[in-house]
Amino acid sequence: MATINKPHQGSTHEGAPAARISPLAQLERSVMSCLLWEDEFYESGQAIGERIAELVARVPAEDAVRVAIRAKEEMRLRHAPLLVAREMLRTKEGRALAKEVIPRVILRPDDITEFLANYWKDNPDEPLAKQVKRRLGEAFRAFDEYQLAKYSGGKKAVTLRDAIRITRPKPSDDAQAALWGRLVKGELATPDTWEVALSKGGDKKEAWTRLLAEGRLGGLAALRNLRNMAKAGVDQESIRGAIRGLKAGRLLPINFLAAARANPQFEPELEAKFLDCFAGRVRLEGETILLVDVSGSMDAVLSAKSEMRRIDVACALAMIGRETFEHLRVFTFSNDLVEVPGRRGFALRDAIVGSQYHAGTNLGTALRRLPKASRLIVITDEQSHEPVPQLAGYLINVASARNGVGYGTWVHIDGWSDRVLDYIARHEATA
């Protein structure tokens, strides 16, 4: 008998039937690839941020804690974990877990100020709960004078001076009390950061050379400033040595692709360091097929200030996959299904990007045409326009769209750091 009382069946933005998933799964897919407030191809950053806030209220506080920590530590995201923590800590159940979440998502002094700015974004008069105030205050104890000075400048809605006055942390000793006093008075020693060194108006070549020699540049700062160093006339071998000396730390695979795009003369060193940082995994045996989405939506930039795209994220993961899976064949899908040459490193990126025109979202057709293998992995934004068959495979979602297709028999993985490939190894080790 026909009935109108049927469960709602969602769809992707391209019209394919989408899986009905739990609020927790919705939260994970919204957060793990999210550069907060940045527009994506199908949805605005504002809509994604509002959905994250709404979903946090629908999941148990313990689950929200796990999402925030995973996004911060494994996906190496900065802003989205703070939003998850903010929304969770608005509730009584969430505030009881302040001790668990705040130390894990507050890693820099400006994380404190951003958290507070977000906390009061919609309601400037909302009181700061006692538990939250206490744990934010305790976070100050982890930072030395250099770190506090580095992040105390600039025009911000909430400054570090505001934050320390609001949270009133208890210093661990007299030296820390004196340090915090200097912060409140605006008397911190000027930090020897690259921004300060370059703002003095002296010889830029000399400044960059000194910063490199003294190891004053973090990994991300070094990658982002390769062009500036080269333009200033810094010795090329010194720059290459700095690249070789980089530590992975909180760097993402995409950071190396961005640096290579801006500095093609250093591509050999960047490729070698990329592989050194991300490819040292235990190789997984068997025949693996990796299917990469090169549809038009994958050409969307990651943020308003970035030239990097979702497809670059997918390429970076494919490059790591080449080193991870013993026997790997790589295909792309858009309007067609195309196998790309068995290259590695940046040559594989070029082969993927140039494999076919970036247009359609024919994921279902591509999956039905693929040859058989013992392991199937799809990297996509999940916005197929046609139904996707239920197969035994892994689907890595690199976007934050509301609905997706990779559930049911699929092992669904959200995120774009190299850690997403570790989930495959862990899943197979425990299967």
UniProtKB/TrEMBL annotation:
Cell location: Cytoplasm
Keyword Amino-acid biosynthesis attributed: no
PROSITE patterns per the UniProt record, alphabetical: TROVE
Key words of the record: Cytoplasm, Metal-binding, Ribonucleoprotein, RNA-binding
PANTHER family linked to this entry: 60 KDA RIBONUCLEOPROTEIN SSA/RO (PTHR14202), RNA-BINDING PROTEIN RO60 (PTHR14202:SF0)
Sequence similarity: Belongs to the Ro 60 kDa family.
Protein name in UniProt: TROVE domain protein
Organism: Aquisphaera giovannonii
